Amino acid sequence: MILSERIFSELAGLVGYRSSFDKEDTIDTDIQASESGLLVNGVHALINSGNLLATLADGPQNFIAFTAYDLQTTFAKGTIVKSGDKLYTSLQDNNQSHPVSDDTWWKPTSLLSQVLRRTYRDAVTTVLNSFLDTKKEAGAGKELLSSGMLLNENGRLPDQIEKNGRFVGFLIRPRETDLAVVLRRVGVQFSANGTIPIKIYRITSDEPLQSIPVNYQHQGKFFYDSLSSPVSLPYWSENVMGETYLVGYDENDLPEEARAVRVAHTIGKGNCWGCNPAYATIVGKWSPYVEVKAISAPANALGDEEGYTYHTDTNFGLNLVFDVVCDVTERVIQQRNIFARAIQLQWAIGLLEIMAASTRVNQAGNVAEVKAYNYLYEFQNPQNPHTLLKQAMKSLNLDLSDLNETCLPCKDANTGIEIGAW
Predict the structure, then answer these.
(1) 111-135 and 4-11 are packed helices; what angle lies between their axes, rounded to 10 degrees?
(2) Domains of the chain from N-terminus onward
(3) 385-394 and 340-356 are packed helices; what angle lies between their axes, rounded to 10 degrees?
(4) pTM of the model
């Protein structure tokens, strides 16, 4: 498994784009940067701003995909708006009533910059997914646990927990490097209906990693909310090794009549086979990979682990459904330069395909369209980009010599030879 957003953040600028000497060729500076020294234009001379603008399917002045700027509208960080014939990117959240000329809040961009940014992201995605698909036998994305659950039973409705103004929930910590917990469903059981505001934190950050408003309409019974996008909780997070996470809610944010219904278990303590063999079996599946504890803490001091109270007889009305997987995100980031050539070629193919598929009618665009098509699909040409990309992909060699042994390939029982290699 790899964490897409972290990968995109760290691999931005690995391969760059060379702008022309035309003063109208306004390409965002971060797209021009190249950590590896490789530029997508270096693949073929056809890849230049003039040819791209001449062949963009809807024309360079078609801004229909972008929101019109309005002083009264609040824009999030990263939102792209159009104002007249110009495009701007919001630099901050809660961006309202700030003119696009205010460079504290807005940064000019261009249509071509956005096309380049999108196709670069597509190239990174394609290269890494292709690489991992060919390496799954060697442990890439190895799934150690699928749809594990913390608990296997419901609480009794009379057994309710009084609110006390705390943050309550679970502390979650992957036990070993290269592991990640992937949350797929959050279960809640409360005495009354309403919105249950679940929040996920890294204890190294005051801002929630994600907020999940669970619409609870199953008074007294467990309800499981399937997350629209699974939430990954990796051992490595934002350069922190051995990250700890919190999943829970602030009791002050609960509906007035809602009380959590308790399941009286010590979370993660499943070795009592005689008293509850079913629960012991469930815990035995996930406890080798992840540590989970029920905690309460002052809502305004979640980063102070010394202030936590650990509980041995409650789940605070919560349950989780999750996977445990092998996560090679940090390995890819640390060795990102080995992917540069493949990303350069894949990005070039994406841009050439835009030209080759153009439906616009103009002299420059028509010439570029024909030449791009011929270059892309003359497979007998040893410099064909598809051929070069296959060669680059075959040469990729990610060093996983110190990968967590849980994630290493299995050995053949008869020969002892390790199957699969990176």
Answers:
(1) 120
(2) 4-137+334-394 (no CATH), 143-327 (2.60.120)
(3) 160
(4) 0.79
CA–CA separation, 392 and 201 (whole Å) = 39
Q: Report the relative pairing of strands 67-68 and 80-83 from DSSP bridges.
A: parallel
Q: State pLDDT tens for residues 40-94.
A: 999 999 999 999 988 886 554 554 578 899 999 999 999 999 998 889 999 999 9
Instruction: Report the amino acid identity of residue 30.
Output: D
By the 10 Å C-beta count (0-12 exposed, 13-18 middle, 19+ buried), 369 is classed as buried
Task: Give bridge partners of residue 89 from the DSSP assignment.
Answer: 80, 107
Neighbours of 351 (CB within 10 A): 26
In 3-state terms, what secondary structure has residue 184? strand
Nearest CA to 195 out of 186, 182, 206, 205 is that of 186
* Range ranked top by mean pLDDT from 7-11, 311-315, 343-347, 372-376: 343-347
* Cβ–Cβ < 8 Å for 63, 111: yes
Determine the Cα–Cα distance for residues 46 and 14; give it in Å rounded to an integer.
21
